[in-house]
Structure formats: C-alpha cells, structure tokens
Amino acid sequence: MIPLNDENETDDEHIKRIWCITDYSQSSILLIYNNIIHTFHFFAPFACDLISSVILITKKSHHQANLQKQRTFRRIFREQFQEHKHLCLAPLALVILAIPTMIITYTSKCMESADDAWIYLIAYFISFIPPTLTFIIFVLPSKFYKKEFEKTIQRYRENIRRS
After folding, report:
1. Among the listed residues 118, 18, 22, 120, the one whose alpha carbon sits nearest the alpha carbon of residue 8
2. For residues 89 and 16, which has the higher predicted lDDT (pLDDT)?
3. What residue segments make up the domains of the chain, in order of their start?
4. Which of 63, 71, 97, 131 is the most interior residue, by most CB within 10 Å?
5. Using alpha carbons only, what angle is made at residue 118 by residues 134 and 10, rounded to the nearest 5 degrees?
6. How far is the C-alpha of 94 from the C-alpha of 35, rounded, in Å?
7. Among 89, 90, 88, 64, which residue's Cα sits nearest to residue 76?
C-alpha cells in the first residue's frame, strides 16, 4: 500500500498529489490474484444468473411438454423463452453496465494530479448503477414479482396506519 501523499505550497499554483490505493509490481502474485478476483466477481454472478434462467425456462418447458403431448418441446420452449426473456436479458444488462468499472479496474494507475480525479469519481458512481437497477430489471418486468411487491407495499401501509 502506498499512502496518500499531498504537498501543498503556499501559492495555489503548485499542488502535487499522488494518490494510490494499492500499487503492485507488474509481475506480482498479488496483482495476478487481484485481477483473478475482479474477473471472478464480474463474470460469476452473470454466469449464475444466465445459467439459472436457462435451466428454469428449460425445466418449465419440459414440464409443459409432458402435460401437453400435442405440442412439441421446441415450440413450448420458444413460448416460454418469449414469456421469460427478461430473466436472460437482465444479466446481460447488468454486465454491460459493469463493463466501465471493470475497464477502470484494469487500467487505473496512481492518480498523480487533481485533474484525473473525475475519472475515479465517475467509476465509483458507475459501480452503483447495476445494484440500483436490479429492481427495475428484475421486479418490474415480472408480473409475479410486481404483484408481490405491491402486496408488500400494501401490507406496509396498513401496518403504518395501525400504529
């Protein structure tokens, strides 16, 4: 770890700042470990969401195909995919939103002047977008989740009125 280093002189024209959170040598085991962890935390949730969505749609299609013998599995699968495509699109949207943070993670170095601060600030705020959009991406498109959310809000309002 490199500490924060600020040198401020009395005249405001010369300000030297070198800010680093961590600084690894290029061949360091810690750098490799850090990159692997960042990559895993980027792709693992995406893969889990996408795989579970495909499994869910496939299982439901198999169940429907067993109940409705006159229709083919392929046709039922297409219908189920159209009905539940938001389950596959949501992980893709979250990954696209996380790409800028991932790029900055791999390309950022020490910040040597106050001029570069906006890049880190933007990256910091971009990292909040995927968790913030989770509600919009997962709950609102789903009829079931939306109905459950409305029931929960209604129960909450009733509890507030009673107390």
Report:
1. 18
2. 89
3. 20-133
4. 97
5. 145
6. 20
7. 64
